[in-house]
Write the structure tokens for this entry.
Amino acid sequence: MVLFLFEFEQRKLYGVFQAVTDGSMNIVPNAYRSTGKSFPAQVRFSVIWNCRPLYEHDFCDAIQDNYYAATKFNFGLSKDQVQRLLYLFDSRKVRVQKSRKKRKVKLLDTVNPLADSGKLELERDDSMVERQARNSVDVPIL
């Protein structure tokens, strides 16, 4: 399943990610403990595309049917809405140096809600990410 992360304080949408497990409670029990906030519903994910975030004014037209107030919208997305968001993110891809070896990638906590210390190191296999990016057009209906 394709995932996007909406950071509601700065009104930015981050993407593009893919769930690698089902959602669960407290996968990382102390996530964000230092901020005093609790986010117990969590999912493990991988990065499909490294992209710069979209500001709300950039993506609001893609999900306009979901708005029920000026700054509030339902998070469930249709297949068409996911396709429109993927189109927007496609122009914001960030080039990452390719390597066949496993390497560590540091993600800021605004990208990763599972991070507690502000940064989280993940190992990833670039060939897997490239395969996922090629297959990302086959988006399941949400």
Remarks:
- The beta strands are 2-7, 12-19, 24-25, 41-42, 45-47, 54-55, 67-69, 72-73, 103-108, 119-124.
- The radius of gyration is 15 Å.
- The mean pLDDT is 76.
